[in-house]
Amino acid sequence: MSVLDEHGAFRPSPAAEQYADRALALTLDERVGFLRDMVRTRAFDVGAANLQRQGHLALWVPSYGQEAAQVGSARATRPQDSVFPAYREHAVGMIRGLDPIEIIRMYRGTVHGAWDPAANGNFHQYCLVIGSQTLHATGYAMGVQFDGTTATGDPERDEAVIVYFGDGATSQGDSNEALVFAASYQTPQVFFIQNNHWAISVPVERQSRVPLAQRATGFGLPGVRLDGNDVLASYAVTAALLDDARAGRGPALIEALTYRIGGHSSSDDPTKYRTQEELEWWSGRDPLLRLRRHLEGEGVGAEVFESIDAEGADLAADVRRRTIEMPDPPMSEMFEFVYTDPHPVTEAQHAWLRDYEASYGSEQ
User: Fold this and answer.
1) Residue limits of the Dehydrogenase E1 component domain (predicted)?
2) What is the bridge-based pairing of β-strands 82-84 and 202-203?
């Protein structure tokens, strides 16, 4: 389903009828804000990829081409909601208040646990173990139920959980177990699949002979398949299903059909498994271009787009500067995230390291 057609015209598909009003309710400023989010994300993404190629990052996982799915769904969340990402949800993190340099620190290898979710819009840690975040999210959503902070009847207080994962993760046992638990306990959560067509090098049609949204029925969940390059569709559907989750109407699954323009990561060579023709076809359906065409049709002037582009360039330049200036972390930092409370074993190890470093310094 879609709200905007490929040329940016507001033309909801028949399946979008029940969601179109939410998209229509968005102000022009909000839609311009969506484009700003998407441009900033892409500028950050391209800049980080360049940093990796120049030796400043150990690895980079791009989100190029998936901006609409992420921005629309993230803007549908509320401050009290909790977000569990995979490892390429850069737009979602920034929308929830995360400084993008925290993502850089993780991929630079200077931290093991990069940020405090409570201080960053309940945006939890990136998870590189494929699919395991679905179980984390489901367990957390069960905890929300036990705490009584959902389905209270107060929409400003009720909480929900959203978890992001890719088409490849749907083949993992963890993801399927999470769907079983979510359906059994009717957890207040939304499973958001970014179907970018390639699980590293395996095409999605080999993983699933039916659309991934149809799998939801087998677990007893509603499933919606949307055009993941349509930011308004992503917003409208996610907002509706998160409202249902907060109200106690149970979990749901979204399959956002999009495309991974870049490789799976900076270690991947997608030319080995996909054709140039396929890449060009999807590149012509760029989500940023679609929204820009829509805004042009709404009368947004060139000066607004120039300002947004400049803002994206400034963000990328700032991240680059801070990355290059980033100091190496102290060795003692490895002890800070082992346990939540002080522990005698790690305290003894830390004391040994301090004594060792002191003796080494005196010899110098």
Assistant:
1) 38-303
2) unpaired
**Helix, strand, coil shares, percent, the chain, to 5:** 55, 10, 40
Q: What whole-number distance in Å separates Cα of residue 41 and Cα of residue 20?
A: 26
Residues 176 and 78 in one domain: yes
* Alpha-carbon gap, residue 282 to 65, rounded angstroms: 9
What pTM was computed for the model?
0.94
Provide the residue count of the chain.
364
In a shared domain, residues 355 and 272: no
Burial class (CB in 10 A: 0-12, 13-18, 19+), 360: exposed
State how far the Cα of 63 lies from the Cα of 55, in Å rounded to an integer.
20
Residues 130 and 199 placed together within one structural domain of the fold:
yes
Q: Where are the beta strands (DSSP E) in the chain?
A: 82-84, 161-166, 189-195, 198-199, 202-203, 223-227, 252-257
Number of domains in the chain: 2
Domain identity same for 226 and 351: no
306/359 same-domain check: no
* pLDDT string in tens for the chain (364-residue length): 999 999 999 999 999 999 999 999 999 999 999 999 999 999 999 999 999 999 999 999 999 999 999 999 999 999 999 999 999 999 999 999 999 999 999 999 988 777 999 999 999 999 999 999 999 999 999 999 999 999 999 989 999 999 999 999 999 999 999 999 999 999 999 999 999 999 989 999 998 999 999 999 999 999 999 999 999 999 999 999 999 999 999 999 999 999 999 999 999 999 999 999 999 999 999 999 999 999 999 999 999 999 999 999 999 999 999 999 999 888 888 888 788 899 999 999 999 999 998 897 654 4
| Residue 210 near residue 218, CB atoms below 8 Å | no
> Catalytic residue positions?
260, 264, 273
